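Q: Start with the shorter request: fold the first protein.
A: Done. Sequence, then structure:
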Amino acid sequence: MRKQIATDNKNFYSYSENFLSLAFPLVNENELKMKEKEESEARWKTKKGFDNLIKNSNYAEHPKKPPQSILDDLQIPYVEQLKEKMATIKGRAPFVAEEAGKVDFFTNFRCPPTFADRDFFKTVFISGDDMVKEL
């Protein structure tokens, strides 16, 4: 009946003939509460329930199983893999430095000051004339 009254715009419905305070409510509060509850649950609840995790279809498979290409390589004996590796290395040219005797990298860094350095103590803040005379 509420749905029928809510869609009727021409008539006004009331429980009393004399007073408008007894007007029939067009809004169903219980229905609004139910809609709000469903909307809030739809944000965090799936159709199946509380299960938001995507389950693995094959539980017998290890979660950290390597890819098939690595599994295929593991099927080949190590001796054969070593022979193939050595054959590919033989075809490569050895590394030759561009300039003989040139340093590959530069040691361009400063060591932090230590107690062996006399200038280290001059950088410390000194207060008073007595302390200045000691130096």
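Q: Next, the second protein, separately.
A: Sequence, then structure:
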Amino acid sequence: MVSSILGFTACSDENDSPQTPLTDVVMNSMASIGDIFTINGSGFDKTSTQIYFRNENEEEIHVKDLEFTATGIQFKVPTELTPGKYTIILKQNGTWPLGEITLLAMSNPIKNLVYPTELHMGQNMTIQGEGFNSTAKVYLEDIDGKRSEALEIISTENGLTCHVPSNLKSQAFYTIVLTQDGGEWKSEIKAVALLIKRLNSIMIPVAGYWEYTAWSEEEPWGPTDSIWIAPKQNISELIYDTQGRLTKIIEYTEEEGEIVGEKATTTTFEYNTVNQIKVVVHNSIEYSSITFEVKNNQVETCTVLDVWDESYVYEWTYNEGYLTQITEAGTQEPIWEATYSDYNLKDIMTYGSNIPFEYGTQYAYGVNVPLLLTDDTFIKYAGFLGLTGRNSKNIPEKYYLTGSEEGIHIEGSTDNDGYLTNLSLSTENEARIFTYEVVQ
């Protein structure tokens, strides 16, 4: 960046000095750290010319790797400098101040930079952006300024991947610090460190009740006999392979700790390619399969085959990582839309129904509660696979179904690592209980 151009004849710092070695010196009065800087002029000597930046404390920083041109010299402004005012010093047959310069902070060379908001301890993370090189390093800085380095850095076409240290403090917030070519930049939004767990099971308790089995046919009419239906738990287990991929969902019922009937595989997951996952739904009255096409760990499209062998393709749209729209391919009308505010899903419009959510300050990980409550089949399976984009930050306190004025109250509780373990609704006698296992 240039604010003005200086032109002058150099004068020596020393009394009785030799004759000024340069003439017709022209240079910018402002530059950014790390920029290539040019000084035009005549009289530079390839064998003896040295350039220094002198700060206001009279400290000098030597410039390395001068490049001599037909019109003068050029060099990279040293990255160890800090923003401020300097005097550029020439040392050549004496010491010569060439003029004052204001240095600005180094420009970030990474374009379209997107930092993650969650740090999965012991796992890889991706910083999206274009322009990373082999000098890039990543640090995670806590509130006290202590830094931990993220290792195993690999630059890719769409960004940089690195390994998050496993010794971070769970649920603590860290600033992501990126360095490259001597420059340093910090994320504006802090990221939370999480011990990564995967969903292991969902249990829905069902309360016991009396079921009437006989009725009087004469007055007074009413039930004459009944049986007690014992409490039970409907359980869905998520099964993973050795690569950590979800392979099937098994469902069964328990009464008093004993399995009633047989366990049944209701869903299987087939990994056709790296970016294609087929969900086979068993004994469904709606769908035979759902095939997800995945890009950047998000569903890009899904192809749905119903039980009548009719096929439909849906396109998924995201904004800043949040799922905002699902539209049938070839149409302009979305079948599902969502709006967000303060990192939370605030409103869903689906098939003409509007579902708004209200939030408090309680947060949770593991399950994206608003998407779970919509009970959309496509989104449910994509959510099990972790392919629905960024989760809402908080647990909703209330949501409203179409025609509901009072709203449905929601209560949730978490484990010590912030993962949602219990969810209950004011309109139901049942709850949802979630269990997890740590991902190694």
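Q: Describe the second briefly.
A: The first helix runs from residue 369 to 374. Residues 1-5 have pLDDT under 50 and may be disordered.
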